[in-house]
């Protein structure tokens, strides 16, 4: 049997084959070694959390995954084949979508207009192309409804939505335009409790559609609420990957803080951290 027939669509083994596999990724900026050999993969329908303190290399790593940076060394396999992204467009057309904390959206423009920004549906009337507003509006309302957000109407301005709802618009947009891997860079770090739980619920919905989610956070509780696997980065290196249930919040927190440093801090504060 060939690889192809072993992993035909719907085969339970499909679930175990990563969509993307990053092997021993290094990234140097001159003499700064931002990544010193990081391996990470994402399977369909899982939420793989990437945790680490400021400067650990999280953003550099996902920029390598999304075609913004070329790795200095290491290999990327996408759906089992070696992949070289020349620029972010290559990664986007392969199905790797990134939602940044600071979203690229225009607050005064409608949700529908933002949803289709750069992907405007066109309708041709008498040889002239028009933005197909009716179609865009209907799709936007439906996609947002599926994500649990009932817009007042498609013309509602993005600026009137809460931070969590805007994140959801960006996520719904990525899903609608065919993301296989959805990278979320600190989507909850600027949100309050309720907004955070809405975004975590959105991540859960997306994952259940078979999309692989990369969730970057430095909040252990947010990660544990939705994560299937947890990889901790520290100064450009992986401290390890744990599965849900294999690690306690305390252990994860400790790893993230670099273990030792936290122990020292606890010591100096009399064990109150
Ligand atoms: N374009 C760059 N040029 C030089 N150094 C960089 C660049 N991008 C990131 N770095 C360095 O790489 C390290 C990791 O940064 P980053 O990936 O942003 O970490 P994180 O997202 O985990 O906070 C830091 O020391 C940072 O200063
Ligand atoms: Mg960062």
TrEMBL record:
Domain ABC transporter: 20-260
CDD domains in alphabetical order: ABC_Carb_Monos_I (cd03216)
Keywords: ATP-binding, Nucleotide-binding
Top-level taxon of the source organism: Bacteria
Gene Ontology MF term list: ATP binding; ATP hydrolysis activity
Signal peptide extent: none
Coiled coil: none
Protein name in the entry: Monosaccharide ABC transporter ATP-binding protein (CUT2 family)
Organism expressing this protein natively: Primorskyibacter sedentarius
Phylogenetic placement of the source organism: Bacteria, Pseudomonadati, Pseudomonadota, Alphaproteobacteria, Rhodobacterales
């Amino acid at each position: 049997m060939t690889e192809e027939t072993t992993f035909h669509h719907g085969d339970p083994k499909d679930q175990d084959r990563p969509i993307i596999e990053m092997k021993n990724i290094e990234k140097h900026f001159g003499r700064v070694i931002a990544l010193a050999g990081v391996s990470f993969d994402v399977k369909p329908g899982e939420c793989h959390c990437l945790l680490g303190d400021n400067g650990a290399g999280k953003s550099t790593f996902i920029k390598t995954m999304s075609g913004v940076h070329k790795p200095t060394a290491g290999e990327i396999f996408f759906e089992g084949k070696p992949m070289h992204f020349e620029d972010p467009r290559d990664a986007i057309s392969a199905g790797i979508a990134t939602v940044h904390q600071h979203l690229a959206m225009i607050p005064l423009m409608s949700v529908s207009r933002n949803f289709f920004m750069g992907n405007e549906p066109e309708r041709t009337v008498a040889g002239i192309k028009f933005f197909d507003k009716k179609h865009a509006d209907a799709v936007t309302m439906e996609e947002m409804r599926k994500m649990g957000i009932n817009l007042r109407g498609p013309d509602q301005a993005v600026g009137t939505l809460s931070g969590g709802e805007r994140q959801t618009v960006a996520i719904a947009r990525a899903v609608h335009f065919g993301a296989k891997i959805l990278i979320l860079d600190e989507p909850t770090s600027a949100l309050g409790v309720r907004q955070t739980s809405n975004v975590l619920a959105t991540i859960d919905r997306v994952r259940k559609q078979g999309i692989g989610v990369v969730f970057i956070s430095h909040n252990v509780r947010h990660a544990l609420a939705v994560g299937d696997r947890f990889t901790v980065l520290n100064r450009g290196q992986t401290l390890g990957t744990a599965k849900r249930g294999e690690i306690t919040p305390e252990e994860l927190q400790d790893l993230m803080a670099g273990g030792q440093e936290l122990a020292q801090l606890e010591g100096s504060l009399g064990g109150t951290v």
